[in-house]
Design the sequence.
């Protein structure tokens, strides 16, 4: 039990469309990720890195193969069971932030807690604490339109970590941000990985950002091309 | 779960005030239009049937008709003997009043007013539901001798006498002067729209001698006693008149017997058709409102689909998302429906007073248009959401 990894993909494939127009995005992926890892997933467009990410995040389903998450066979779960898995164990950060428009930062961060059924008092406290952790104290009542890109991404990170997820999935989290802001965001994500022990899976095509990770996986053409660890002095 | 979902739905309404407002507006206009139109139509129908009953119910009217075919031509008028014959030979006839109408100008001091003089007998008053506000009806001598006395209607009193009491005064009609012995209580407009109170009533003989100059009677009004059947009396009247007017079996009637019930039915069915027409026109505006809502919802489908993607990614169950959208749609269309009903109540109350028709609250149409608007809101608000919530979260998130 202790030996099994947090995430294990075996012979995972994904086919889009059918018949002549079918496109095989993943052609058999085997991968294991341990708790507490910081993994960067790299590769050119169409290499299958985002598809893998979406399947790992239970946002999409594989065509064949198996996906074990915390010893659960995810590919056998129903829609609702996958939603509950997302609710309790996963946090998402997207390239496009994906915050609710015209909704304050606080309410955005509260949202996952509402679905968890937490009461108003503990919800507010947790959301405020999360915003403070990402450095947005005092911005609670601003809507996304009133925040800069970097600030919006911080709100998104706060929303992802407010539930203390096991895994933070980040899909090109710095893709829409300038270099300096990108570094700040990466430092924030790294901090959550190092200090809170949250496993981070991050899709990126920027080597600078991938450099924050301890393990880099490269996809090419639907296959896993390389898997390297950057051992650094802790 | 329900409580939290309600919270989410209310938040969604609050942060999309423009969209919410437009949705509500569409419903408000539709609901208010339908309810107002139908309520006013009902009021008009009621007012018409009220006026008809003020004419007197159970009334039969005999008028000379046109005969068709060879030997046709103007049919003769009635005579005073017909009145007597009806009175004595038809048991179901309660009141029998001859009517001769002549236009004339009535003058009192410096005031003059052009009105219609009716020559008749005392049966005219109970048969036509007339009551006296002051004074008395004709006595036997006045009727037999054709004395110059008259009973005037409310409009004539107002035009000639203003604030004064008319009883006992002399008014002049054409070349003779005539004592006012009574004042009729006002009845208002007739079902045909004419002013029933614009009248001067005199004994039949007075009018025949001094105004019409002939023994003819234009019309007979017969009221049927409550115990007798209108159709029975109508049949008897027809037979009697055919006999009295020497009409052979092969010939058609040269007179017509109409009853107020028929007139009432004709008129109320007309206003009912008008109500339905108005209601149909208003229903179109409800439909247009619905299409407006549909447009708003479809325009916001991209944004909403993404929102649904975000919610699903965060861990919302499909049914939680659906419930939220359902609550949103129901809340918006209920608010719209209630505002619409309130607005319609105010508007129809006001317009009913303006148009001088009674205000009648119709629970059925209120409920019906409320339900219809709720259905529109739910269909157009909920079904696009249902499609989106059934997508893979990633497809909903990437919706363009």
Sequence:
């Amino acid at each position: 039990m202790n030996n099994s990894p947090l995430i294990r993909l075996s012979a995972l494939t994904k086919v889009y469309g059918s018949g002549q127009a079918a496109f095989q995005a993943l052609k058999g992926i085997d991968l294991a990720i341990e708790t507490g890892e910081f993994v960067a997933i790299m590769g050119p467009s169409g290499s299958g890195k985002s598809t893998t990410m979406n399947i790992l995040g239970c946002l999409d389903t594989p065509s064949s193969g198996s996906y074990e998450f915390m010893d659960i066979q995810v590919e056998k779960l129903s829609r609702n069971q996958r939603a509950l898995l997302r609710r309790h164990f996963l946090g998402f950060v997207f390239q496009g932030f994906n915050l609710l428009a015209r909704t304050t930062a606080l309410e955005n961060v509260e949202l996952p807690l509402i679905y968890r059924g937490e009461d108003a008092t503990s919800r507010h406290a947790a959301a405020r604490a999360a915003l403070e952790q990402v450095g947005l104290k005092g911005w609670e009542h601003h809507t996304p339109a009133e925040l800069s890109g970097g600030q919006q991404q911080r709100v998104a990170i706060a929303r992802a970590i407010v539930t203390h997820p096991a895994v933070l999935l980040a899909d090109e989290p710095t893709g829409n941000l300038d270099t300096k802001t990108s570094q700040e965001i990466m430092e924030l994500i790294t901090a959550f990985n190092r200090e809170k022990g949250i496993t981070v899976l991050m899709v990126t095509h920027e080597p600078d950002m991938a450099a924050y990770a301890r393990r880099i996986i490269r996809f090419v053409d639907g296959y896993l091309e390389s898997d390297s660890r950057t051992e650094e002095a802790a | 779960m329900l409580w939290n979902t309600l919270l989410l739905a209310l938040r969604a309404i609050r942060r999309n005030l423009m969209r919410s407002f437009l949705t509500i507006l569409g419903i408000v206009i539709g609901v208010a239009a339908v309810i107002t139109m139908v309520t006013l139509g009902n009021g008009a129908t009621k007012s018409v049937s009220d006026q008809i009953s003020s004419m007197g119910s159970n009334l039969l009217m005999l008028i000379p008709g046109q005969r068709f075919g060879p030997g046709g031509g103007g049919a003769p008028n009635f005579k005073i003997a017909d009145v007597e014959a009806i009175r004595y030979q038809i048991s179901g006839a309660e009141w029998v009043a001859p009517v001769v109408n002549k236009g004339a100008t009535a003058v009192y001091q410096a005031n003059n007013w052009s009105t219609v003089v009716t020559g008749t007998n005392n049966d005219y008053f109970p048969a036509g539901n007339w009551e006296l506000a002051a004074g008395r009806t004709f006595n036997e001598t006045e009727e037999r001798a054709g004395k110059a006395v008259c009973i005037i209607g409310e409009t004539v009193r107002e035009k000639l006498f203003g604030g004064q009491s008319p009883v006992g005064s002399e008014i002049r009609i054409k070349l003779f002067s005539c004592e006012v012995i009574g004042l009729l209580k006002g009845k208002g407009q007739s079902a045909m729209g004419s002013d029933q109170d614009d009248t001067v009533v005199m004994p039949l003989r007075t009018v025949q001698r001094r105004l019409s100059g002939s023994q003819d009677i234009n019309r007979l009004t017969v009221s049927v006693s409550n115990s007798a059947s209108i159709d029975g009396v109508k049949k008897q009247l027809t037979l009697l008149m055919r006999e009295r007017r020497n009409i052979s079996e092969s010939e058609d009637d040269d007179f017509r017997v109409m009853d107020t019930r028929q007139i009432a039915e004709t008129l109320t069915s007309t206003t009912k058709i008008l109500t339905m027409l108005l209601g149909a026109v208003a229903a179109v505006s409800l439909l247009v409102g619905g299409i407006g809502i549909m447009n708003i919802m479809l325009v916001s489908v991209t944004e909403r689909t993404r929102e649904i993607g975000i919610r699903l990614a965060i861990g919302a169950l499909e049914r939680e998302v659906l419930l939220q959208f359902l609550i949103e749609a129901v809340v918006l269309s209920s608010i719209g429906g209630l505002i619409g009903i309130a607005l319609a109540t105010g508007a129809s109350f006001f317009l009913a007073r303006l148009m001088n028709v009674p205000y009648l609250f119709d629970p059925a149409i209120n409920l019906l248009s409320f339900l219809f608007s709720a259905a529109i809101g739910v269909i157009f608000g909920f079904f696009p959401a249902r499609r989106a919530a059934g997508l893979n979260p990633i497809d909903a998130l990437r919706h363009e």
Summary: Chain B has a mean pLDDT of 86. Residues 260-299 of chain B form the longest helix (40 residues). The two ends of chain B are 30 Å apart (CA to CA).
